[in-house]
Write a structure and sequence with these properties.
heterotrimer; A mainly alpha (319); B mainly alpha (342); C alpha/beta (269); A: 319 residues; mainly alpha; ABC transporter involved in vitamin B12 uptake, BtuC; 12 helices; 71% helix; globular; B: 342 residues; two-stranded antiparallel ribbon; 16 helices; 2 strands; binds adenosine-5'-triphosphate; binds magnesium ion
Chain lengths: 319, 342, 269
């Protein structure tokens, strides 16, 4: 067996673009309508931005703590309920609640990591997975117990449809997309340009080495988990105006975020954002290609293919 | 963890385990004469739980391949059994066999792909999850058997062991699932004692070393997955027959995969008795909470009529066990006594 | 008769050339010693010959058959067995069970499978650890467990990767004696060793690897005199010249953490 030289990043992006183009053509052939396709692309990209933000939090946690976090979606739901309460009871603008939910989720993340998860650092995969699973189930069902199974929603006074290329996008989705991109950029800057970010990256690359140069690794774990959770929280608030808020709403985002994280390369923050957009597209175009199936089916098929063929993700170096 | 069934002294251990199993089963079999009929439904649920746990433990406890997708096997068993009886009036025993074969084939095929591409740890767990979710989504839209709407098993007149239907409240259901669970435990004990059992453990401990010693790793991993899948499918087929209904969420939902994991984790992963103990702890939880909520004490009055408390309890239990007793209840007891005796 | 014949074996790990065009033969019943500085490719050579790692190019013939495409477990069953430089016990098992698993692979009957492990444990001097968890063994005993498991397979050819590493000089004698007995019983041995005295004493022939290539081969005396070998061993020159055991920190080196096992999943692009 001879090994081919690894493709450069540019080549891989080109391959990805080619795949997207082929899928677009197929979708057009299948639906026979340009509007259907451009609608799918628009919806997919807008939602994909949010997937990207959720996945950035998840991949950060994975990259630094090496933990598969099954509580991520439930934490996102907490923020959704926070927005519901603050918007409908306190009359706040839903987007303003971001100033409350993101810091609150940051705090919850800190508490969870320092109180519970730090105790299992370095123990078996199964243990950590089960711990986050337990936390997720606990949060979800506390929400169910507190708010009941009746779905909630958040009203936005100025919601209006926007048009582009014959496709329609709700203003709330556009805001969510832009908000997600903005926060993603902020997170990226934080990781790349600040001392804390450098310390976090050092821990991700080599915990023992980081310890040696005097970085408090446990504290970085706490901070990272908190940051990741704040991402989930911000995403929860951003999507609250256009999803029905139930105790299990975050579950789906959690699942999709896993797919995105693997696609983008576990631990790769930029990969997560690009992966989010790709999975948003996959979901919508999959719905066009296989109209009688759930759009998620296409997502899982892509997931399994990526797991098999490129477990290090589209943008990861094989490490 | 239990040592491989290869050493010279494991013969006595196997004998002891089988003896405990038979005596325990005989004692449990008398429960219908003691328990009020309402409690019998709880006992049946515990045993379904236990069977799933025993099955998961084979693949993930002894085999070391952490599955987060046992719903796939359970659902295949449930739908195969349900479909055959509803549409063709075929005996559920045959349904179980067909479901077990289907689930084993599915497990072996997906397992082969996953191992071929060397998925391990978290990646393997996520792949099993993805396969189960795919079946879930397919079931939601599968036309030929109208799977999405769910299957209702028709009620028969009278009582028949061949059709596994008895009048409501009959203890026969309990004895049937007890027998199936005991068989599964016995099969596990036999597997561990056999040559294959030694190989399975060796592979779990160090795949590369096992392979270098002449053990065909792929074959034995697939064997483990196949056995585990088949056992889980039997639980699924029994489930349909007992509750007379199945739908895609009940069959393939991720909650089912979690239910398969929990008994072993609570009781002790990779131990014979762990899943049984775990199931006995978990099974009654939802009834305890249901009773609590039906007639709540004053302090909990605000909870009346709400759902979620049962899951909260076992989520909390899961967290406590993972943090405080990472080897599970049985695992912790065993280490405690092992230390005491030396 | 040639038992093992290796031709043109090459293997790279992401650009690092671990083996390049390595060829050699081992005759039935002989002992071949392999030496070379750290990172020379000795462990990779064993992995490729035993089938644990797929070579990029080259062939391996064993007992007259081309085994190049055989998976490692099939080669092991055919009698081509390796040990690992870094000990890899089955941690959850007792010492006895570790050996018993291997014995069963080749056992003709259950009775044989039950009797064999104890005999093997006796031979390598592990009998008193029989019922202990293998993880509880000291490092030197773990080394012997590696050897015991391999012996339980009743090999025709043993690839031994630094069995003496980590043993104090007093512990080496018995192991060396055992290797001698194994040869007398007809087992062919290929062994990697940094302890020069052992290589010189035991080997019929010596192969010197450096940077993945064979730089010298011959009798121990021929090889020691070869200037290329001296050069490759610049740091260890003293050890070579004196022929004394290379007790200068070179043994017990388990520096290569990734024992060729965590090679990435092969990816098509
Ligand atoms: N799995 C692997 N992935 C990447 N590089 C590897 C791998 N295994 C070995 N190498 C590299 O191949 C080269 C040869 O390594 P090898 O372990 O075969 O040397 P060695 O002669 O056994 O050394 P030592 O005396 O330290 O045991 C080294 O540069 C090593 O870093
Ligand atoms: Mg080496």
């Amino acid at each position: 067996m001879t090994r081919r030289a690894p493709l450069s990043l540019a080549a891989r992006l080109a391959v990805a673009a080619a795949v997207v183009a082929v899928v677009l053509v197929l979708a057009y052939a299948r639906s026979g309508s340009g509007i259907v396709v451009s609608q799918a692309v628009l919806t997919g990209l807008l939602l994909g931005g949010v997937y990207g933000l959720v996945a950035m939090g998840l991949t950060l946690i994975f990259g630094v703590l090496d933990i598969v976090n099954f509580a991520h979606g439930a934490l996102m739901t907490v923020a959704m309920y926070g927005t519901v309460l603050l918007a409908s009871h306190a009359g706040l603008d839903p987007y303003l609640t971001l100033l409350v939910t993101a810091p609150a989720l940051f705090g919850i993340g800190m508490a969870l990591q320092s109180g519970l998860i730090n105790r299992t650092m370095g123990s078996s995969l199964a243990n950590q997975l089960l711990l986050t699973l337990g936390i997720g189930l606990l949060i979800e069902n506390v929400l169910l117990l507190s708010f009941g199974s009746e779905p909630r929603s958040v009203a936005v006074g100025y919601a209006a449809p926007l048009r582009a290329f014959g496709a329609v996008a709700d203003l709330t989705r556009v805001i969510a997309f832009l908000g997600a991109l903005g926060l993603a950029a902020l997170l990226y800057l934080l990781l790349q340009r600040t001392r804390v970010g450098t310390a976090i990256r050092a821990v991700a690359a080599n915990p023992d080495g980081a310890q040696l140069v005097g970085i408090d690794v446990r504290r970085m774990y706490v901070l990272t988990f908190a940051l990741g959770t704040a991402c989930a929280g911000a995403a929860g608030t951003l999507v609250a105006p256009f999803v029905t808020v139930e105790a299990t709403t975050g579950e789906l985002f959690n699942i999709i975020a896993f797919v995105v994280v693997v696609l983008g390369g576990m631990g790769n923050v930029v990969g997560a954002l690009v992966g989010g957009l790709l999975i948003g597209l996959t979901e919508q175009l999959g719905g066009v290609l296989l109209p009688e199936q759930s759009p998620l089916l296409a997502v899982f098929v892509v997931f399994v293919l990526v797991l098999f063929l490129r477990p290090q993700g589209l943008f990861g170096r094989s490490s | 963890m239990t040592a491989a069934g290869t050493g010279t002294h494991t013969g006595t251990r196997t004998g002891r385990q089988l003896l405990v199993l038979v005596i325990g089963a005989a004692a449990v079999a008398t429960l219908p004469f003691i328990l009020p009929p309402a409690q019998e439904a709880v006992a049946v649920r515990i045993l379904i739980f236990a069977l799933m746990g025993v099955a998961w433990n084979v693949m993930s406890g002894y085999g070391g391949m952490f599955s987060f997708g046992h719903a796939a096997y359970f659902g295949l068993g449930a739908y195969a059994g349900g479909y055959l009886i509803v549409r063709h009036g075929v005996s559920p025993w045959i349904g179980m066999a067909v479901g077990a074969a289907l689930a084993a084939a599915f497990g072996v095929t997906t397992g082969f792909l996953a191992f071929r591409y060397r998925l391990k740890g978290a990646y393997f767990a996520l792949a099993t999850f993805a396969f189960a979710e795919m079946l879930h989504l397919l079931a939601l839209s599968f036309e030929p058997i109208e799977a999405a709407a769910g299957l209702n098993v028709p009620l028969l007149q009278g009582s028949s062991w061949w059709m596994l239907q008895f009048p409501p409240g009959s203890p026969n259901y309990f004895w049937a699932i007890l027998a199936l669970t005991v068989l599964a435990v016995a099969a596990t004990i036999a597997l561990l004692r056999s040559k294959s059992g030694g190989y399975v453990i060796a592979i779990r401990e160090d795949e590369q070393a096992a392979s270098s010693l002449g053990i065909p790793v792929m074959r034995y991993k697939l064997l483990t997955v196949g056995v585990s899948a088949a056992m889980t499918a039997v639980a699924g087929a029994f489930y349909v027959q007992y509750y007379l209904y199945i739908n895609p969420d009940l069959a393939f939902g991720s909650a089912v995969s979690i239910q398969a994991i929990l008994p072993s984790v609570i009781g002790g992963i990779g131990t014979i008795w762990g899943p049984l103990i775990g199931a006995a702890v978990l099974g009654p939880l939802s009834d305890v909470t249901a009773t609590l909520l039906r007639d709540p004490p004053a302090a909990l009055a605000f909870l009346e009529g709400r759902s979620g408390l049962d899951v909260i309890l076992y989520a909390a239990l899961l967290i406590v066990i993972v943090l405080a007793l990472p080897k599970g209840v049985y695992g912790a007891l065993r280490s405690y006594f092992a230390r005491g005796s030396t | 008769m040639t038992l093992l014949s290796v031709r043109g074996l090459s293997k790279s790990f992401r650009g690092v050339r671990a083996l390049h065009d390595v060829s050699f033969d081992v005759a039935d019943g002989r002992i071949l010693g392999i030496i070379g500085p750290n990172g020379a490719g000795k462990t990779t050579l064993f992995a490729a010959v035993s089938g644990g790692v797929a070579a990029d190019a080259g062939t391996v013939r064993f007992a007259g058959q081309d085994v190049t495409r055989w998976p490692d477990h099939r080669r092991a069953r055919a009698g081509l067995v390796r040990t690992f430089q870094l000990m890899r016990p089955f941690g959850a098992m007792t010492v006895l069970d570790n050996v018993a698993v291997a014995a069963q692979v080749r056992a003709s009957s259950r009775a044989a499978a039950l009797a064999a492990p104890d005999a093997v444990l006796d031979r390598v001097g592990l009998a008193r650890y029989r019922d202990q968890r293998s993880t509880e063994l000291p490092a030197a005993e773990l080394k012997r467990l590696e050897l015991a498991r391999a012996l339980a397979l009743r090999p025709r050819l043993l690839l031994l990767d630094e069995v003496l590493a980590g043993l104090v000089p007093a512990e080496r004698g018995p192991v060396l004696d055992l290797l001698g007995t194994l040869r007398d019983e007809g087992i062919t041995l290929v062994f990697v060793e940094h302890v020069m005295a052992a290589v010189m004493r035991l080997s019929d022939e010596v192969l010197v690897l450096d940077q993945g290539q064979v730089i010298a081969a011959g009798t121990p005396a021929e090889v020691t005199g070869d200037p290329r070998v001296v050069e490759a061993y610049l740091g260890d020159e003293a050890a070579l010249a004196s022929g004394d055991d290379g007790d200068d920190g070179n043994d017990g080196n388990d520096g290569n953490d990734d024992d060729a096992d965590d090679e990435d999943p092969e990816t098509p692009c």
